[in-house]
Amino acid sequence: MRPVLLVGHADWETFGVVPGTLDAEGLPWIEHLAHTGAVLPELSEVSGIVVYGGIMNVDMTDEYPFLETEREYVRAALGAGVPYLGICLGGQMLARALHHPVYSAGVREIGFNALHPTPEASEDPLMSVFDDGDVVFHWHEDTFDLPEDATLLATGDVVRTQAFRYGDAAWGTQFHLEVDRAEIDLWLKTAGDDGVRAWGKTREEMEAETDRFIDGHEERARALFGRFWEIVRRSG
Fold first, then answer.
1. Of 72, 172, 174, 180, which sits 20 to 30 A from 136 (CA to CA)?
2. Is the pLDDT of residue 52 over 80?
């Protein structure tokens, strides 16, 4: 079985619940930290792709040249039918690879907020793990419109477009479905008290939300990724 490719954009990326779910399924995986300038593997060498979030806008290609390369890689993966799951920046990358703009949402969304699956989500292989009102974790300030020929799978109260599917094997989410408690703790530590407060909440508020919601969030995330690995396995 060819390995699953995990694409991160920061030295401190832990990939959340994903490595554990891959190991539990007995699937090999490799990591690619895009900002290091490392060369992406050939698509023929991977069985699936998960692209994570980052601090940058997807169009900041002058400051982060790897973003343009990554966008073309995602576009090629769609053409080749390689299963793809994009999270936050990765979801925006999927929309951008489909020639749709990514722009400021006009609001900074942070913390656990309610998700509203669409009727189409009930039949979706991945997003059917969510019920209306389940909370998911956000930390973003950009958004995108739904690409043509894509299926809207979930909306939010603060930022509308939260999840979509393109074709049979590509998904994008605005929310961070991958995070576990350790990942959130790391992000809060990295941002610092002032950095978190600049997003409209205090570190104490974020920690209280995490205590309340993280167990259910992790459970749904592991279930979703388990379903995605089955798609990857069948495709591979």
1. 72
2. yes
Element at 135 (helix H, strand E):
strand 135-144
| Residue 122 φ then ψ, to 5° | -65, -25
Strand arrangement of the beta sheet that strand 135-144 belongs to: 29-33, 4-8, 48-51, 84-87, 170-173, 161-166, 150-156, 102-117, 135-144
Tokens 């090629």, residue located: 76
What pairs with residue 208 in β-bridges?
A: none
Burial (0-12, 13-18, 19+ Cβ within 10 Å), 45: exposed
Interior/surface letters 184-216, b for 16+ CB within 10 angstroms, e for the rest:
beebbeebeeeebeebeeebeebeebbeebbee
Q: How far is CA 197 from its chain centroid?
A: 23
pLDDT per residue over 19-45, tens digit each?
999 999 999 999 999 999 899 999 999
